[in-house]
Amino acid sequence: MIECSVVGDGGVGKTSLVLTYKINAFPTGYIPTVLESYTTFCALDDGVTHDLSLWDTSGQQSYYRLRILTYAEADVVLLCFDISSTASFDNIRAVWMEEIQHYCPGLPVVVAGLKTDLRWRRLNERYEQMEPESATIISYQQGRSLAAEIGAVEYVECSASTQEGVKNVFAEVVRVALNHPKPEKRKRKCAIL
Description:
By secondary structure, the chain is α/β, with parallel strands linked by helices. It is built from 6 helices and 6 strands; from the N terminus they run βαββαβαβααβα.
C-alpha cells in the first residue's frame, strides 16, 4: 500500500481533491478537516493497480501535532496550494517545506496547484471588477518553478470541481512513490555511560 500525506494551507481544496478522486464526484459544501484517512486505488497506464492510502490533513497550525504523525508512515507527500491564493503559494516554501524537511527529510514531494478552473474563469472576467489580491492567479510555469526550487519531484495541476487532472495527480503520486523509495529511518542507539 502506498501512503500519501496530503498537506497545505486550510481552504486550498485538499479535501475536495481527495473526495473527488475517491467518490468520482465533487463534494458540495465546505468540509473542514482535522485528519481523515481514505483508502482507494490507482490504476496506472501499464494496467497495474496500486492500493493508495490518503491522509487528508488540516492546514491549521493548531492541528500540526496530528498532521506530523502522518509523515512517519508516508511514502510521498502531496503538497497543495490554491492557484488563486498567493498566500497559499508562498506558504509552500515558507511553511510547508520547512515542516516536511524537519519531520521527514528526504521524503519525495509532489506539488499540486489546485482550483485550476479559476484560471479559466478569471480570463473571462474583467480584472477591474476584482479586488487586487484576488486578481492574481499563479501560472503553471510559476508552479513548476517553485516545485523545482524546493526540490519537489513533480508539479501537477487540477480542478476538483471540473475533475480535470484529478486522476493524473494521484497517478503521479503513485509513480513518484514507486520510483523514489522512502528514505531509511536513522536507527538510534542507546549509549549508557
